[in-house]
Design goal:
This protein is mostly beta strands and about 260 residues long. The protein contains no helices and 19 strands. The protein folds into two domains: about 110 residues, no CATH class; about 150 residues, Neuraminidase, CATH 2.120.10.10. About 40% of the residues are buried.
């Protein structure tokens, strides 16, 4: 077994783009999402592509006014995908759902007076999903505060959930091996004048509440974060990210929960 390069198309006329997340409902149905630049110097626009077992094809994702990017996707079936990200609109958040025929924008609640970005998505079944990300609130004097955001769908409606992450946390990835077990990961940036060491964050949903988990970091770490997670079962998760030791170079980081 080995890795091979696959040809990925881009929309006509686009000088470039990027794919940030992928989800496969079966070996013959995968969806990848990200963004592309329609013209040199233009705003980034959402990009979605589908693998049919033979080749990749661009899908027509909805482009919000001012542009946007898709950062996470989950497809519980070949005919049901939800992708999330950020837009340049007044809320900052972007969410779209694929129904087997087309992508359509979904309404996502957000904390009042904030901009919100969703970066991770995991669906155990259609309309049984968890989305994670971050919110930012600007105050006087240019002060900006950041907090984690968790949204849950239990049917066609999304609701905000209270989570356990401390202030200053941004969540980047989530994995739900069952409808009553989800693990979310990200980074916490403590308040203070830079440089301040970031810390990796992980929290678990047991079907009722979120609880923080202890994340080990290598000795001598100065700043760490987790950007993705995959859970085979409630007590079997692997999370990946990076850490630093005070030098400009980031070092790969992997943590296993078992």
């Amino acid at each position: 077994m080995s890795w091979t390069i696959q040809t990925m198309p881009v929309p006509a006329g686009a000088p470039g783009g990027e794919l940030d997340s992928v989800s496969c409902a079966s070996p013959a149905s995968c969806t990848a999402v990200g963004w592309y630049v329609p013209t040199a110097g233009g705003e980034n626009l959402p990009l979605a592509e589908h693998w049919d077992g033979t080749s990749w094809a661009v899908q027509a994702a909805v482009a919000p006014a001012g542009g946007g990017e898709l950062l996470g996707v989950s497809c519980p079936t070949a005919l049901d995908c939800i992708a999330v990200g950020e837009s340049s609109g007044p809320t900052g958040v972007l969410a779209e759902r694929w129904n087997g025929t087309r992508w359509a924008v979904q309404a996502m609640p957000r904390p009042a007076g904030t901009n919100m970005t969703l970066a991770g998505m995991s669906c155990k079944a259609p309309e049984r999903c968890i989305a994670v990300g971050s919110e930012t609130t600007s105050a006087g004097g240019g002060t900006t505060t950041t907090g984690a955001v968790v949204e849950r769908s239990n049917g066609p409606t999304w609701t905000l959930q209270a989570d356990a992450a401390p202030s200053g946390t941004s969540l980047a990835g989530v994995s739900c091996p069952s409808s009553r077990s989800c693990t979310a990961v990200g980074v916490n940036v403590p308040a203070g004048a830079p440089p301040v060491p970031t810390t990796a964050v992980a929290e678990h949903w047991d079907g009722t509440n979120w609880a923080l988990q202890t994340v080990p970091e290598p000795s001598g770490t100065f700043g760490a974060e987790l950007s993705g997670v995959w859970c085979l079962a409630t007590l079997n998760c692997t999370a990946v990210g990076d850490y630093g030791t005070g030098s400009p170079r980031a070092i790969p980081l992997a943590d296993h929960y078992r």
